[in-house]
Each structure stands twice: as structure tokens, then as C-alpha cells.
Amino acid sequence: MMNRFSRLEKQSENKPIRLHLALTDEALSNDQKVMMKRYGESLTGETITRDIVIPSDMPLHHLHYAIQKLFGFQNSHLRSFYLPEEVYSKLTNNTVKGWSELVGVLFQPPSEFERDLFWDDDYKRGSINTWLKKKYTGPYHYHGLLEIPEVAKRDVEALLERFKLLRVYESPEDCVGTLKPIIDLTLEEMADDLYIEAGTESLLERLEVRQVLAAQGEPLSDRNVFPVTHKLIYNYDFGDDWIVEITKVDGFDDLLSQHAISWFEIDQAKEIVIDQHRPVCLHKQGLSVLDNVGGLSGFANFLRTIYEGEDKEEVKMTRAWARSLGWSDKKIANNKIL
């Protein structure tokens, strides 16, 4: 049992932070929205949401594992955290120079995706949920070498040195182009002549969530880089293209006024965050999804098949396939999701 003074010391080091996560897809058809609302337990038919509290020192890297568990994924595809387009454009001025100056500070170096991002992806066998829990439970450490600022800087400098000149095409009719210094180009011009596998938008995963993300209404920093945004975007499985929009919320008035949660549950969640150094789910709207289903639109079609399908054999096989990926529509208490 933790004594009062130990609890106060831990609380001062690890203040719980509330996040709202919305799994969304703007391309859902009206029919798919009906399926999401009718069977997917989505309030609006357009999103699946989770409200969680996390330790204040949680890095993006470990938040990734929590997101996997929260929405029913199994860490079997690529992912990336990035900024809304308008924030990214403002920070980089859409130039190679602006971007390269923030590599190692905010953005991943160009070689990280292919060499270093999956440094702790060590799942072999057994329960994927148990493995994920170990990943999103603190204390947190990040050991990816390319995210060390000095190493990241050397990596981007090596890219700029290797490709000093790139060919720029002034128009679609320009088949020859003109060689120009890479450092003077826009990011779009660089991308036209140089392929970087993960692009230039991916954020460093060693960064703590609180460094990057400001609460709604909280001013962003003018003099320093951090915090940089009021919204983070998490992209998982670039084929299915799952998008989770992440915002930081001050207080719990909205959930309390909706009678979605009690003060007792809030206090209990905060205690777990402080004492066990792990995130807790406070509230959810919408079923868990599953990998390889085709994104949120595919999930809506999946729901139609298993609940309204007339071919009993197809329904049976579809349910069996979903179970093989860990999917279930069984109810589970919010505080037991993570």
C-alpha cells in the first residue's frame, strides 16, 4: 500500500492527462453510417471514440500501443503520428530548409522508418493484449538510436549532402527540368524528385504527448517549438488507412454532464495512472474494430454482413475470421479495456 507522502510525490511527478481519441473516416456513406450507429454502437454513426487518462510522461511511442489496445488492433501494420496540414505548413514553411531544421527536434530523420522505428517490436507468441499492456505501462524508455537529436541531425545532413541538386519541373509540360539546390526547394519540389519512404511529416515518437499537444484553448508557444498543436493525427495501416484524431481535454465536465461517468470513476482512474503508471479508459462510444477489415467503411460493411447477412455460411465464416483476429462484440468495463 502506498503511503500518503509517496502518493503526493508520485502525483507531483506524474499528473494524469486526459485525451479524447476519435477514429474517423470522412468517406463513410450514409448506409455505412447507419450500420455504425445501429450495430457499431457509434453515437453519430461517423466516429468511434475513447476518452482516456494517461501518465504525463507518456511518449508518443507508448501511446501507439495504448491506441492499438483501445480500438482492437494487433500491431500488425505500419503507423505514424503527424500534425494537421496547416500546422505542419506553418512550422516548416513548406520548405526543405524549414523541415530539415526541425528534424531531430520534432520530425523523424529520413532513415528512421526503414532502419530504427521498430526497435522494440519483439512480440513472438502468447497474448497480444498482455504484450501491449507491458508496452504502454511505465516507466517509459525510448531506445531508438535515430531519434537521438545529434544522430537525427547527421542523418538529415547526409541526405542533403548526398542529393545536393534535384531536378525541378516548372510545369507538367516540362520534361527536362532544372537542377536546383535541394536546400532551396519546397517540400513538394523535393518530393517530386526524391522518394523518402515515410515522407517528411512523421513525428519523433520519443516526444512526450504533453510536449507536443496543447489543450483546446491553451495558447501554442511562440518562442519555442512546444507545444505545437491542438490536434494530433495517428495513422495506422496505410492500406486500410485508419485515422485517429487526438485532442487534449482539460477537466471532465462534459462527461459528467452527460452522466457518462462519475467522480468516483475519475478519481479511481487517476489513482491507477499515478500508482500503476499506466493509462486508463474512462469512456468509450463504439465497438472495437479489427485489422484487415478495410478501414472504418470496411468495418461498417462487416457489421452489415454479420448482423443482417442472409447467407448463414458467410455470416459464420466472417465471425470466425473476426474472432481469429481477436474481435468480439462482448461488453467490457471501460476501466478494464487497458
What is the name of the CATH superfamily?
MM3350-like
Radius of gyration: 22 Å
Characterize the biggest β-sheet. Answer: 6 strands, antiparallel
Low-confidence stretches: none
Question: What can you tell me about this protein's structure?
Answer:
Residues 46-91, 227-324 form the Plasmid pRiA4b Orf3-like domain. InterPro entries: MM3350-like_sf (IPR024047), Plasmid_pRiA4b_Orf3-like (IPR012912). It comes from Halolactibacillus miurensis. This is PRiA4b ORF-3-like protein. This protein has a single domain (4-336), classed as MM3350-like (Structural Genomics Hypothetical 15.5 Kd Protein In mrcA-pckA Intergenic Region, Chain A, Roll), CATH 3.10.290.30. A hairpin with a 5-residue loop joins strand 6 and strand 7 (242-249). A 6-stranded antiparallel β-sheet has the order 3-6-7-1-2-8, with helices on both faces. The chain has a two-stranded antiparallel sheet with strand order 4-5. It is of the alpha+beta class. It starts with a helix and ends in a 14-residue tail after the last helix. It has helices spanning 4-13, 30-38, 60-71, 85-92, 96-102, 112-115, 128-136, 149-162, 187-193, 209-212, 253-257, 263-276, 295-308, 312-324, and strands spanning 17-24, 47-54, 79-82, 165-168, 178-181, 232-236, 242-249, 280-285.
